[in-house]
Amino acid sequence: MSTDTQDPLEKAIRQSGQGWLIDDWGSASAAIARVRQLLTESAEKATILLGGNAPEITEAKLLEDYSRNPHRVSAFFQIFGGSCTPEILIMAWRLMEGADIRSVTVEFRREVGFKLHIIFESPDDESYISTDINDFRIFRHIGIMKVDGAPAFDGFYPLHVR
């Protein structure tokens, strides 16, 4: 498809190299509607979870951030294809804003259950929980490193698939 679309969200998704997100979901209008729905659901959930500290998860903010840092927003677009629960989208947004992960707990038992619990470095122990194993894919985008020999998760990055 052409990137000459009039829809600014579709244009940003395609320019970021994530056109598959639109093409794999069927029609462009249905795909863009789904992305907008997930943004709206995430914004509503953020308000419930974080109250007055909720990030501004809007299409306008996403496009503004894309114009300043397209690589970071490209990573956010990538997770729409696999990790689509609103809570994990909020967590990804907060990572894009520079939040730091304090702890990660994963509970998994084959064919029985899965639970992911992530706590951020924050005065109120901001945390995110998911029981959808697909949300574990978020860790493909989080930097894994050692700082002074100690483990750390830091940053939020796009995958470079060739």
Name the features.
162 residues; alpha+beta; three-stranded antiparallel beta sheet; 6 helices; 41% helix
The average pLDDT value, as a whole number, equals 89
What integer value in Å does the Rg equal?
16 Å
Distance between the termini: 20 Å
In total, the number of strands is 5
The quaternary structure here is single chain
Pick out the low-confidence regions.
none
Written description of the protein model:
- There is one protein chain.
- Helices cover 41% and strands 21% of the residues.
- With 162 residues, the protein is α+β, with helices and mostly antiparallel strands.
- It has one domain.
- The protein has a three-stranded antiparallel sheet, with helices on one face.
- A hairpin with a 2-residue loop joins strand 4 (142-147) and strand 5.
- Helix 3 (28-50) crosses helix 6 and helix 4 crosses helix 5.
- The longest helix is centred in the first third of the chain and has 23 residues, at 28-50.
- The chain is globular, with a radius of gyration of 16 Å.
- The two termini are 20 Å apart.
- The model has no long low-confidence stretch (mean pLDDT 89).
